[in-house]
Amino acid sequence: MMAPLCLLAAGLLSPGARAGVTLGVGADVVTDPSDRIDPVSDTRLGTGGGLRVPLRVGIGESAWLEVAVRSSLSAGQDRVEWTQYEGTVRYYSDTHWTLVNSTALMVGPVVDLTHQPAVQPFLGARVGAGMVTFWHSFHGDAAILLDPDQGDVTSRSHIDPYTRQFAPLADLSAGLRLGRVAPFAIELEAGYTVSFLAEAPLKKARPELAAVRTAAGLNALRIGVSTSFPL
After folding, report:
1. CB 145 within 8 A of CB 107
2. Is the dihedral of CA 50, 56, 62, 63 positive or negative?
3. pLDDT tens per residue across all 231 residues of the chain
4. How far is CA 149 from its chain centroid?
């Protein structure tokens, strides 16, 4: 962890000014392979795809300040808990289908490790905040969470109870910029994004059940490709 941060600091403190602004667009494969929301439950947030739009402004000889908008979707399972019989008995479900959407604004430095125009390795570190939504499809015993006062629960278009919350995020990445294969730069990038999600109440669930999505960790690995255009 310390080595990438030291390289980032060296790039930011290097003399000289770097002129230029670039705008990019990229696509990623995103996976959260190791997150277990409960120690006895093999609950995972799954694999999916993501889009990102980074805007970079030169701030040094080898450094950029990046402001990026990112959004991702992945399908897996989370853990939902609720109570019945006036709160005396607690139930849970972790086998229902879950779709996780995270849309975030991230800011941080990106540092080029060499000055070769053809192939440039780079490192990035970013922090930010995102809106994270867990959509659910409940069935079996968990179908008790569906609130008939919120619409026709037998309809395929009915939206099952969901959670939505803001959360802080941190990200580290490494990649290669290919500058001579097209009229624009092509970047290959891998990264790791982490966030902690506090317990959140389910919206649209039957209120007397006090249903919640339990606390969860987002530990997303991503790999993708993007293009970058000078402005």
Report:
1. no
2. negative
3. 544 445 444 444 444 444 589 999 999 999 987 555 555 555 677 899 999 999 999 997 789 999 999 999 999 888 899 999 988 999 999 889 999 999 999 999 999 998 777 789 999 999 999 999 999 999 999 999 999 998 888 888 889 999 999 999 999 999 999 876 667 889 999 999 999 889 999 999 999 999 999 888 888 999 999 999 888
4. 33
